């Protein structure tokens, strides 16, 4: 072989060998996705941004399971965009993912509220059954399809608390004239009882309650409410969360970006979202138990249920509000009817399973 041929042969062999070695690395580089997730909650908030089952935990799980092929950079509220701009940012494709709650998009899509919580609606078990195995998730994505969006449940607070009141609630008359912080459909119910509804962000609840700008407030449950110091501003703590029997954390995604992911990465996202849905709820249940004991034992909080007559009236008014609102547009009506059909089915099962069990263990 002439020297020139030798050189050519060695170059060819080297390229082949190099090619064999480089092929997976090249495929891998092409197959690596660097995404951004914004969050409507502030940095350092347990459950909402940090801790087991939180959005940052979700990002870490996805990175680990995909061996770094899907790398999602998390931005807490205000770090990249203001808290409630996630919907538009994800829709435009500026960012790929947003963590928050669908009921904050009620101004754009009224029906979106049904995918966070409904007063006297589904608890954690019920909402998961509806979402995963009774068409709820498909319906959610049908609603979002026109916006180029897709969503998954990624967390749940579990049942919340009615909230904090400066004076006891003995009858529905005690609501008349109260100024209360409460978001969502439940606010419309309270309005019918003469409550002046205030839509304050989380961070403004404590100072407003302490200064008497508001007389009552709901936030989440014992752990989160204690963290905000709400027990220092009001002592009557009513249970249980008729207004939010569970509360779904939304993983909102740009549909084009989602479709661009290979099937294995989509499977990882789905599994991690499901894992965080479970883990965030388990964490909430574990911490709420201790926090409520501490509030009652060490902070003079009076925790009690609302009188039966008050609950009955709230239930009647909720049915009225939902009937009025769902009649307003066909999409809301479709979601409402789907949700209610499953709620009634789940309620009848709970009536002969969970309800007697709770009765057995509390008596
Ligand atoms: Ca709440």
Number of domains: 2
Let me know the number of strands. Answer: 11
Shape: globular
**CATH homologous superfamily of the largest domain?**
Bacterial extracellular solute-binding protein, family 7
**Assembly state here?**
single chain
Task: Identify the strand order in the major beta sheet.
Answer: 7-6-8-5-9-11
Q: What gap, in angstroms, lies between the N and C termini? A: 96 Å
**Distinct ligands, ions and cofactors found in the model:** calcium ion
Overall average pLDDT: 92
- SSE ordering: HEHEHEHHEEEHEHEHEEHHEHHH
Query: Which percent bin holds the helix content?
Result: 40-55%
Question: What fold name goes in the CATH topology slot of the largest domain?
Answer: D-Maltodextrin-Binding Protein, domain 2
Account of the protein in words:
The structure is a single chain. Helix content is 50%, strand content 14%. By secondary structure, the protein is of the alpha/beta class. It has two domains: 31-156 and 248-285, D-Maltodextrin-Binding Protein, domain 2; 163-245 and 288-322, Periplasmic binding protein-like II (D-Maltodextrin-Binding Protein, domain 2). Strands 7-6-8-5-9-11 form a six-stranded mixed sheet, covered by helices on one side. A five-stranded mixed sheet has the order 2-1-3-10-4, sandwiched between helices. Strand 6, helix 6 (185-191) and strand 7 form a beta-alpha-beta unit. Helix 2 (55-65) packs antiparallel against helix 10, helix 5 packs antiparallel against helix 12 and helix 6 (185-191) packs across helix 11. The longest helix is centred in the last third of the chain and has 36 residues, at 263-298. Residues 11-19 have low confidence and may be disordered. Calcium ion binds next to loops. Calcium ion binds at residues 160, 218-220, 244.
């Amino acid at each position: 072989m002439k020297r020139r041929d030798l050189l050519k042969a060695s170059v060819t062999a080297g390229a082949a060998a190099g090619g064999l070695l480089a092929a997976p690395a090249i495929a891998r580089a092409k197959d690596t996705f660097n995404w951004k997730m914004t969050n409507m909650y502030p940095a350092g908030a347990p459950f909402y941004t940090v801790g087991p089952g939180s959005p940052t935990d979700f990002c870490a799980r996805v990175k680990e399971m995909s061996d770094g092929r899907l790398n999602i950079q998390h931005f807490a509220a205000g770090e990249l965009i203001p808290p409630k701009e996630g919907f538009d940012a994800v829709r435009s494709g500026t960012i790929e993912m947003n963590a928050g709650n669908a009921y904050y998009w009620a101004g754009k899509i009224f029906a979106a509220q049904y995918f966070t919580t409904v007063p006297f609606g589904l608890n954690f078990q019920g909402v998961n059954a509806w979402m995963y195995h009774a068409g709820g998730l498909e319906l959610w994505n049908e609603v979002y399809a026109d916006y180029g969006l897709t969503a998954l449940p990624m967390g749940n607070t579990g049942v919340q608390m009615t909230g904090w009141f400066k004076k006891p609630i003995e009858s529905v008359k005690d609501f008349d004239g109260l100024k209360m912080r409460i978001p969502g459909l439940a606010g419309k119910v309270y309005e019918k009882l003469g409550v002046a509804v205030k839509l304050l962000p989380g961070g403004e609840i404590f100072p407003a309650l302490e200064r008497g700008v508001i007389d009552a407030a709901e936030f989440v449950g014992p752990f989160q409410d204690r963290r905000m110091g709400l027990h220092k501003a009001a002592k009557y703590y009513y249970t249980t969360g008729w207004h939010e029997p569970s509360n779904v954390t939304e993983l909102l995604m740009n549909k084009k970006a989602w479709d661009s992911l290979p099937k294995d990465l989509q499977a990882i996202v789905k599994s991690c979202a499901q894992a965080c849905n479970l883990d965030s709820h388990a964490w909430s249940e574990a911490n709420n138990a201790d926090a409520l004991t501490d509030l009652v034992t060490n902070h003079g909080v009076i925790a009690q249920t609302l009188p039966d007559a008050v609950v009955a009236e709230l239930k009647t008014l909720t049915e009225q509000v939902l009937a009025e609102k769902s009649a307003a547009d066909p999409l809301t009506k479709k979601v409402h009817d789907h949700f209610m059909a499953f709620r009634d089915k789940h309620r009848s099962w709970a009536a002969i399973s969970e309800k007697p069990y709770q009765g057995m263990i509390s008596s």
